[in-house]
Amino acid sequence: MTAGIHLDVVIGAAAAAGVYFAAWRAAGERIRPARAGAFVGALVALLVALNGPVHDLAESALFSAHMVQHLLLTLVVPPLLLAGTPAFMVDALLAPLLARSASRAALRTLTRPVPALGIYAVVLFVWHLPGPYDAALRSHAVHIAEHACLVGAALVAWWPVASPSRRLPPMPYAARILYLFVFGIPMTIVAALITGAEQSLYTFYATAPRVSALTPLADQRLGGVLMWVPAGLVPLLAFTAVFFRWVASEAED
Q1: Predicted model pTM
Q2: Is 19 exposed, middle or buried (0-12, 13-18, 19+ CB in 10 A)?
Q3: How far does CA 102 lie from the centroid of its chain?
Q4: Residue 127 CB partners (closer than 8 Å, separation 6+)
Q5: What is the residue-level pLDDT of the chain in tens, covering all 253 positions?
Q6: What are 66-70's contacts with CB under 8 Å, separation 24+?
Q7: Taking the CB of residue 24, how many other CB atoms lie within 10 A of it?
Q8: 57, 207 contact by CB (below 8 A)
Q9: Sign of torsion over alpha carbons 243, 244, 247, 249
Q10: Helix axes 52-60, 63-71, angle to 10 degrees
Q11: Among 147, 153, 221, 228, which residue's Cα sits nearest to residue 184?
C-alpha cells in the first residue's frame, strides 16, 4: 500500500503556520520557542493523522490504525494547539464572538468543566457507535465531519486546562488537577466497551481486505487497548505539567 499525501491537508497546515508566524511579527511580539514548538508539533501530529500510512490504513483496512488517528486528533493536536497559541491571537479570534452577549454567554458556558467534558463524552460515544462509525468510513464528507467533531469537542474539553485566553481563562490550578482526574473517563469507557466486545462491531472492518495477520476482532481489540492506555497516560502527563506550574507559581508569589 502506498502512503497517500493529501495536498489539502498539507496546504492547510502550511497556511496555518504562515499565518501563525506572521501574526507574531505583526503584533511586534518576540516569538517564544516553547509556544512555537507546541504549535508546530500540533501541525505535525495533524499531518501524521491525516496523511500517509496511518490515514490510508485507517480508511481501508485497520480499526487499530483508525484509533491511532483518533488519539492524535483528540489527545495530541488540541492541547498542543492551545499550548502553542498565545493569548493575543486567541483573544483576537474570539473578539467577534465575545462582543455579542448571546455568543459570549454560550462560549463561557461551553468552556466550563462540566459542559466541556460532557460535550467531549457525547461526541466520543456517538462517533464510536457502529452506525455513525461505518457511515464515516463509507462517505468522505461524513468522515471529515467526524474528524471535525472530534477535534472541536477535544478543544472544548482541553480548554479548562490549557486555555491561553485572558477573556476565557483556564480554571485555577487546583481545579485543573481535579478535572484531569476525570478527563480520561469517557475515552476509557468507550475503549473498554470496544475491547470487551465479543464480536466485530464495525461492518466496514469486518469485510475489509486483511493486510496483517490480525483477524477483524483481534484488530478491534488492539484498537481498544491503544485507545485505553493513552486515555489514562495523557491526562497523567498533563496533570504533572499543571502540578509543576502550580508549584512554580506559588514559589513566585
Answers
A1: 0.92
A2: exposed
A3: 27
A4: 133, 136, 146, 149, 150
A5: 445 788 889 999 999 999 999 999 998 888 899 999 999 999 999 999 999 899 999 988 999 999 999 999 999 999 999 999 999 999 999 999 999 999 999 999 999 999 999 999 999 999 999 999 999 999 989 999 999 999 999 999 999 999 999 999 999 999 999 999 999 999 999 999 999 999 999 999 999 888 888 999 999 999 999 999 988 899 999 999 999 999 888 777 6
A6: 66/223, 67/223, 67/224, 67/226, 67/227, 68/226, 70/150, 70/227
A7: 17
A8: no
A9: negative
A10: 130
A11: 228
- Cell, residue 112: 466550563
**What's at 62, amino acid-wise?**
L
Distances (CA, A) of 161 to 112, 230, 240: 10, 17, 12
